[in-house]
Design goal:
By secondary structure, the chain is mainly α. The chain has one domain. It is built from 4 helices and 4 strands; from the N terminus they run ααββαββα. The strands form 2 sheets. Strands 1-2 form a two-stranded antiparallel ribbon. Strands 3-4 form a two-stranded antiparallel sheet. β3 and β4 form a beta hairpin. It is flat, with a radius of gyration of 24 Å.
Length: 114
């Protein structure tokens, strides 16, 4: 029979906290690897290029199918009305583009020690 002490020792690895992304902040790396600087952002003002905002405007405009005439017959794509599929695809595009911007273009924070 297993004692309480043995079961606690066996399960101790379950309660050990995993390293969190903020645990890496002083090491010069994050959970995805070394810190990189944003290549297309000017270092002085830290604003995103205008083309990023243009892409967002286009994707959000596509996500609301206002451009489809009201008298258009209902077509089913993948078992859903076509306007739902268009809206979901544009919303998925916004999510993918946001992930791209964060991973590739987001300005890195300089540590106060540097």
């Amino acid at each position: 029979m297993i004692s309480d002490k043995e079961s606690l020792e066996a399960a101790s690895h379950l309660t050990t906290p995993a390293p969190m992304p903020h645990d890496y902040q002083n090491s010069g790396a994050d959970s995805h690897g070394p810190v990189r600087s944003a290549r297309s952002l000017p270092a002085s003002d830290g604003q995103f290029p205008r083309w990023i905002w243009g892409v967002y405007v286009l994707l959000f405009a596509a996500s609301v199918p206002w451009y489809i005439p009201a008298d258009t017959p209902l077509r089913l794509w993948f078992g859903l009305p076509h306007w739902v599929v268009i809206s979901l695809a544009a919303t998925f595009g916004v999510a993918l583009f946001t992930a791209f911007v964060i991973n590739r273009l987001w300005p890195s924070q300089e540590s106060p020690d540097a």
